[in-house]
Design a protein that fits this description.
5-stranded mixed β-sheet, alpha/beta
Length: 318
């Protein structure tokens, strides 16, 4: 493939060379006809004369000799350290006494994926999946979040002014979330605990909410928390016609979509700015969740909004 700044394509070079070699055109006439320099016309004509039509493609610009090329021993050491310790180019460079850019090129040359694309525990590439339709699988999880006492917590008053003892603290908020795997549409409630009856009641309300949007939940995926393994949860799923699924033990990545939603929730709502009370923060949450579902471009679905992936869902432009 010709260089993007090349004045001639491979076909153009061949035509020029044939005009000179086979038809006997003077070099200057051919150069003027094909709008290239005299030396360029001479180069392609000479290559065609010696090597034929196969020589009309670009040659590699890599030098024939590289006396300062990184040795094979260093490359093997970089790959070994990457495999054993799962560290990036900067730390690899320090350990191997090379430049970070060199370590980066070695990893690229050997098709090593970025650390973000690897499972932290096993080092294996993360296998991403997405269900084909809304409701086919809904991820459910609970995020525990400290409540804000009236007057503000440490983020607004500082550590000294916002300190509360364990006995008179504001307690915890348990944010229960149901997230659709296909669309990333989210439904979240602030509840007082994460017991089995609370989780089961949340599932009933989440099912009704998704049904109001035209989504029938077929399966739910949870971790192996105590509340999700009790008969209360199983019976509720059976009554709703939902098939329960559980992640493998010690593998929270399986439920990674809702885990990632909770991280976004903390970054863009809970810790976005200091709140003076828990009531103020929860009032802001209603608007944030609507924005997330209907207006926020989601990088996991190519910049679409979750609502845009649900057929005939209203409210996308309000």
């Amino acid at each position: 493939m010709p260089h993007r700044n090349a004045p001639l394509t491979e076909t153009g070079r061949l035509r020029l060379a044939r005009c000179v070699v086979e038809d006997g055109w003077p070099l200057r006439r051919a150069a003027e006809r094909f709008q290239v320099s005299h030396t360029t016309a001479a180069r392609w004509a000479d290559r065609y004369r010696r090597l034929g039509a196969a020589a009309m493609s670009d040659r590699s610009s890599r030098p024939h000799h590289q006396p300062r090329k990184t040795t094979d021993e260093v490359e093997r050491e970089v790959l070994r350290l990457r495999q054993e310790h799962r560290i990036g180019p900067l730390r690899l460079a320090v350990r191997c006494h090379i430049a970070a850019s060199t370590a980066h090129r070695i990893l690229q040359r050997h098709d090593q994926p970025p650390l973000a694309a690897l499972d932290r525990s096993t080092g294996e590439p993360i296998r991403r999946y997405e269900r084909a339709r809304p409701g086919e699988l809904v991820h459910i999880d609970v995020k525990k979040l400290g409540r804000i006492p009236d007057g503000g917590g440490h983020k607004s008053l500082g550590r000294a002014g916002g300190h509360r003892s364990r006995t008179n603290g504001a307690g915890w908020a348990y944010l229960h979330t149901a997230l659709d795997d296909h669309s990333r549409l989210a439904y979240t409630e602030d509840l007082p605990d994460e017991t089995a009856p609370t989780c089961a009641a949340f599932l009933v309300r989440a099912t009704a909410h998704f049904a109001s949007l035209g989504i029938r939940i077929e399966r739910v995926l949870t971790d192996n928390a105590w509340a999700y393994t009790k008969n209360t949860w199983r019976n509720t799923c059976r009554e709703l016609g939902i098939s329960p699924r559980w992640t493998r033990p010690w593998r929270p990545q399986t439920n990674g979509k809702v885990e990632r939603f909770h991280r976004t929730l903390l970054d863009e709502w809970a810790y976005q700015h200091p709140y003076t009370s828990d009531h103020e923060r929860m009032e802001a949450f209603t608007d944030w969740l609507h924005w997330y579902n209907y207006h926020r471009p989601h990088t996991g679905i190519a910049g679409q909004t979750p609502a845009s992936r649900v057929t005939n869902l209203s409210g996308q432009h309000t």
